[in-house]
HDOD domain-containing protein (Pseudomonas neustonica), 272 residues
Amino acid sequence: MDINELLAQKDKLPNVPDVVKELIQVLSDEKANLDTIAKKVAKDPTLSVKILRMVNSSYYGLPRKVDSIDEAIVRIGFERLKVLVISSGLSGSVTGEVEGLDIKRFWNESFEMGEICKIIAKKTSAVDANVAFTAGIISNIGRLLLHLTTPNRAKAVQALVDEGGNRNDAELDRFQFTSPQAGAALLELWHLPTELCIAVLQQRAPLDHAKPSPLSAVICMAEQMMSARKKGATAKDIVDAVSFPLVALAGIKDGLGDIAEQVVTLESMNIV
């Protein structure tokens, strides 16, 4: 099977609003016209409803209900709103059930990955925190793509993983490519920044690539930390679980213990 065969199934691909793609393009551009983007968001009723639902969730703990995008900007700030626009747009890109995948759990765990990536990125100048958050959210978009376009093969891969098998090996056996490769191809199709495409592609083994991406190291570290966190790890356990060559690639010189403490105390995402 070829990745292009998956991408050719246009009716099955996630449908991400153009305004979300536009915002991702300018995440680290300080000169971007964010007011224009905010107005576009406000004019998209479906996206606006999802954003306001998230703003008013218990996760943000606001004292009273927010009723408009403009009010949301005032109450939580534009930086946090940018994150919500991307989160809402991506999580709303697939409607209905996805065969073999708990879509609500998938997106909540994706947002959790995003939060951990952002925590890590705040300790390095090599990676922008907002870009890291977005990278974390979309890091597993390839798995979603496989379930949407080839559910039987995707379920077979998951069955092997559930039995203790290696996901990378299982995907290569069933598809002849991996979900990060499929995810990177989808991001390229959406014309998202090259930095994100490369990071998603390299995420499982950044140091195996000739030009490893610091952002891919952040994603890989976040995955290691999230896996340890699911097992009830302490902050020390999480530090021990991280590959130190990845820490160096991410540009983190100190503060790993603080990162681990924040990961341990991070509230589980439940905003979808």
Q: What stands out?
A: The chain has a mean pLDDT of 90. The CA atoms of residues 57 and 266 lie 16 Å apart. The longest helix spans residues 103-121.
